[in-house]
């Protein structure tokens, strides 16, 4: 009986996707509004591609969040039908209060009104938007039901950017989309080492910048990485240039992976963290070798760099196929992004972090942009600036609301395994104080009134304590 109900919900989902695609293609002119992160950028690009394929006049814009400030800006821009992608399901009442009537929403976040006919969302059909399908994946599925399947690879990049492969591979609806991309010859899947930078970074850089997992004695220490590779007999140069991981032979890759396993085991790293080092990697076959766009994880970083530095439109153009001027701009944004991250890490290194019973906290106001404060917080673990035994909260000025602070939270997979869920903590604690927040178990954020900052830190600290105690009792 339960299996029949599950199949019925799945059938209903795909039927409703089809009807939703028909409604959108019946419009004459649509403004696509997407989130400014990787998932939102790919979702926007897929939506624009779909609409133009269907002969609908389409334009787009990217926003940091769908709040009152953004709604006011949008209301003065256009009379076109609005299509919100990778956001909107939690803001339907707010959109109505702001006077919006002619709009649609394609989202994967938990909906406030599950039955609203203006939106399509996986949750009412039994699919979890946290790991089964991304925002880009939802837009792709709408397009797919109308016969447009050419952007499956972009939806895979969106899912990876949304960390939906954090268990080692993509699942469920994401898997369906991945299969489309494989069938189209745009993506290849391989079980391999999952360290970031497999395509574009040198071997020593790949190891030195690894923070998932943290490599004892190697992460944050390029010279030690050089020595390690020499010691295990892996040649780092080829024809006068530095090798990347993808340049290694199959035997060299296996040998390096084995030695990294030994390194982690010798340091007492938990087995479940070691296992995360290897899993599925997604190679975009139409992109050149060593390009940042050839690996889905690196591609997602390029798009995040564009979005976080207020140039999401360049990222959308790259996803839509621009490999000339916009791709050059995107690479410049990536270099700028890396420089800003370096400056952020230098700031945390010099100033340190406050130690609370169950968290670390640092204030980046005026020094670290709100757009990258969360990334810096996560990198502080890998750079060995902050210990990995507690979550870290980082503070930045909120440019859109001078009465509030933006708080970014980061944890490690070991902390998540021990019961920490940052998204729950950010959501519940911020709401108690008149703010807003949410996110994933390992990465989340909140906006809180400035006068409530200390109370917020205390509440979150107590919440982390409770989460770990609940896990221990379970």
Core attributes:
474 residues, alpha/beta, inorganic pyrophosphatase (n-terminal core), Diaminopimelate Epimerase, Chain A, domain 1, 6-stranded mixed sheet, 5-stranded parallel sheet, 18 helices, 47% helix, 16% strand
Short structural description:
With 474 residues, this protein is of the alpha/beta class.
Please, could you describe this protein's structure?
This protein is an alpha/beta fold and 474 residues long. The chain has 3 domains: 185 residues, Alpha-Beta Complex (inorganic pyrophosphatase (n-terminal core)); 82 residues, no CATH class; 122 residues, Diaminopimelate Epimerase, Chain A, domain 1, CATH 3.10.310.40. It is 47% helix and 16% strand. It is built from 18 helices and 15 strands. A 6-stranded mixed β-sheet has the order 10-11-12-13-15-14. A 5-stranded parallel β-sheet has the order 2-1-3-4-5.
Mean pLDDT: 93
Structural class: alpha/beta
CATH topology category name of the largest domain: inorganic pyrophosphatase (n-terminal core)
- Helix tally equals 18
Shape: globular
The end-to-end span amounts to: 31 Å
Number of domains: 3
CATH architecture verdict of the largest domain: Alpha-Beta Complex
Radius of gyration: 22 Å
Characterize the largest beta sheet: strand count, sense, and whether it forms a barrel. Answer: 6 strands, mixed
Residue share in β-strands: 15-25%
Strand segment tally: 15
* Strand order, largest beta sheet: 10-11-12-13-15-14
Binned, the helix content reads 40-55%
List the uncertain runs.
Answer: none
CATH class of the largest domain: Alpha Beta
């Amino acid at each position: 009986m339960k299996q029949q109900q599950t199949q019925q919900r799945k059938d209903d989902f795909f039927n409703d996707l089809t009807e939703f695609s028909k409604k959108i293609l019946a419009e004459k002119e649509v403004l696509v509004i997407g989130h400014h992160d990787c998932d939102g950028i790919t979702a926007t690009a897929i939506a624009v591609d779909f609409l133009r394929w269907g002969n609908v006049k389409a334009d787009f814009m990217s926003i940091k969040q769908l709040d009152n400030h953004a709604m006011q800006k949008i209301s003065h821009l256009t009379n076109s039908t609005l299509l919100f992608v990778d956001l909107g399901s939690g803001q339907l009442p707010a959109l109505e209060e702001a006077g919006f009537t002619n709009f649609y929403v394609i989202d994967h976040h938990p909906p406030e009104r599950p039955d609203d006919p203006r939106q399509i969302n996986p949750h009412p059909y039994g699919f979890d938007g946290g790991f089964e399908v991304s925002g880009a994946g939802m837009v792709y599925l709408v397009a797919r039901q109308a016969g447009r399947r050419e952007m499956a690879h972009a939806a895979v990049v969106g899912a990876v950017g949304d960390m939906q492969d954090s268990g080692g591979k993509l699942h469920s609806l994401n898997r369906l989309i991945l299969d489309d991309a494989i069938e189209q010859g745009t993506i290849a899947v391989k079980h391999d080492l999952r360290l970031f930078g497999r395509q574009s970074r040198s071997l020593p850089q790949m190891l030195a910048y690894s923070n998932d997992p943290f490599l004892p004695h190697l992460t944050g220490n390029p010279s030690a990485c050089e020595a390690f590779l020499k010691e295990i007999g892996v040649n780092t140069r080829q024809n006068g240039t530095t090798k990347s991981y993808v340049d290694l032979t199959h035997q060299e890759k296996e040998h390096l992976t084995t030695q990294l396993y030994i390194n982690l085991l010798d340091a007492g790293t938990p087995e479940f963290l070691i296992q995360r080092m290897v899993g599925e990697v997604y190679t975009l076959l139409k992109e050149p070798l060593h390009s940042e766009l050839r690996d889905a994880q690196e591609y997602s970083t390029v798009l995040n760099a564009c979005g976080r530095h207020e140039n999401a439109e360049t990222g959308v153009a790259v996803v839509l196929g621009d490999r000339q001027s916009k791709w050059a701009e995107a690479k410049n944004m990536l270099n700028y992004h890396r420089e800003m991250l370096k400056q952020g890490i230098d700031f945390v290194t010099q100033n340190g972090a406050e130690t609370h019973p169950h968290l670390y906290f640092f204030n980046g106001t005026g020094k670290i942009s709100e757009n990258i404060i969360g990334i810096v917080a996560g990198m502080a673990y890998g750079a060995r600036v902050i210990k990995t035994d507690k979550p870290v909260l980082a503070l930045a000025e909120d440019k859109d609301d001078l009465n509030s602070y933006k708080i970014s939270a980061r944890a490690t997979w070991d902390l998540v395994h021990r019961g920490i869920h940052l998204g729950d903590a950010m959501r519940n604690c911020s709401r108690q104080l008149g703010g807003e927040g949410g996110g994933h178990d390992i990465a989340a954020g909140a906006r809180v009134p400035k006068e409530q900052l200390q109370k917020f830190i205390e509440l979150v600290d107590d919440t982390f304590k409770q989460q770990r105690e609940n896990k221990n009792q379970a």
